[in-house]
């Protein structure tokens, strides 16, 4: 028995699916790769789906090996992965997103049988996948939150302080001269980092809804490490502004710092 296989269609369908998955991963982990890297990563995922057709051996073995290798290369290509731990953490989120995307796709074709033929076509995969991406990227804010919990280690030479923080998408502060994103921390934390005397500060203007314009005092931290979703990322020369009041909100009793989401896009 012979089957006619269209490898270009398999590649394109796999490319589209992996593109949606990579975009979801980036959004859920606040780890946005640039568009060139995302597209190249999706291309690697697409190649992983067609390469088994060109090599011999047991179909399950070669398919499994290609999936494992291409997935690792896809993640490494799409995002700034710096170590094995980070690779495994992103891979875990890929599995999570794949489960929900695949389950949503099956739900649609089973709930609406008349859509099955269209949904299984390349155009259908593009359209249904796009709908699932929009649903999960929007609804996912409830799963991973508008503010994403994380841990931050502030480092100055031999001194360091680790605090509970969250990524606040409402934080748009920037240092006016360099344009760098500014995160916010409670004053007591910086006093732990500079026990003797705080260094020279920069004025960080701000404006919050329902309040007058004002300014915060900002300080340049030599290095901070942000651990989010099991992934630790390092940033150098980061501006931190001092909050005049406590940053505790609702159930987040231990929060001492608000991370600017733009910071996470800069590594």
Q: What do you see in this structure?
A:
- With 267 residues, the protein is an alpha+beta fold.
- It folds into two domains: 7-144; 147-265, Cathepsin D, subunit A, domain 1, CATH 2.40.70.
- Helix content is 45%, strand content 24%.
- The protein has seven helices and seven strands; from the N terminus they run ααααααβββαββββ.
- Strands 1-2-7-3-6-5 form a six-stranded mixed barrel.
- Helix 1 (7-28) runs parallel beside helix 6.
- The longest helix is centred in the middle third of the chain and has 28 residues, at 84-111.
- The model has no long low-confidence stretch (mean pLDDT 80).
N-to-C SSE series? HHHHHHEEEHEEEE
Helix content: 40-55%
Strands, total number: 7
- pLDDT below 50 for ≥5 consecutive residues: which ranges? none
Short description:
The protein is α+β, with helices and mostly antiparallel strands and 267 residues long.
Topology:
Layout lengths: L6 H22 L6 H16 L8 H20 L5 H28 L4 H4 L2 H23 L2 E10 L2 E10 L13 E5 H7 L8 E5 L7 E15 L2 E13 L11 E5 L8
Parallel strand pairs: 2-7, 3-6
Antiparallel strand pairs: 1-2, 1-5, 3-7, 4-5, 5-6
Output the keywords.
24% strand, Cathepsin D, subunit A, domain 1, alpha+beta, 2 domains, 6-stranded mixed β-barrel, 267 residues
């Amino acid at each position: 028995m012979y089957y006619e296989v269209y490898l270009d269609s398999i590649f394109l369908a796999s490319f589209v699916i992996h593109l949606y998955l990579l975009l979801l991963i980036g959004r859920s982990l606040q780890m946005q790769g640039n568009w060139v890297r995302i597209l190249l990563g999706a291309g690697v995922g697409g190649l992983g789906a067609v390469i088994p057709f060109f090599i011999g051996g047991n179909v399950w073995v070669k398919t499994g090996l290609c999936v494992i290798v291409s997935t690792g290369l896809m993640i490494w290509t799409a995002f700034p992965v710096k170590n094995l731990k980070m690779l495994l953490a992103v891979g875990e989120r890929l599995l999570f997103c794949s489960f929900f995307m695949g389950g949503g796709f099956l739900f649609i074709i089973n709930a609406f049988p008349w859509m099955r033929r269209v949904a299984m076509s390349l155009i259908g995969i593009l359209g249904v996948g796009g709908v699932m991406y929009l649903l999960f990227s929007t609804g996912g804010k409830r799963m991973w939150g508008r503010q994403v919990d994380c841990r931050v280690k502030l480092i100055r030479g031999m001194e360091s302080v680790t605090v509970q923080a969250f990524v606040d998408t409402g934080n748009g502060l920037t240092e006016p001269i360099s344009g760098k994103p500014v995160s916010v921390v409670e004053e007591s934390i910086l006093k732990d980092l500079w026990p003797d005397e705080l260094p020279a500060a920069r004025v960080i203007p701000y404006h919050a809804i329902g309040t007058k314009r004002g300014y915060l005092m900002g300080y340049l931290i030599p290095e901070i490490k942000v651990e989010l979703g099991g992934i630790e990322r390092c940033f150098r020369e980061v501006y931190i502004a001092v909050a005049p009041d406590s940053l505790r909100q609702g159930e987040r009793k231990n929060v001492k710092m608000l991370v600017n989401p733009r910071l996470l896009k800069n590594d």
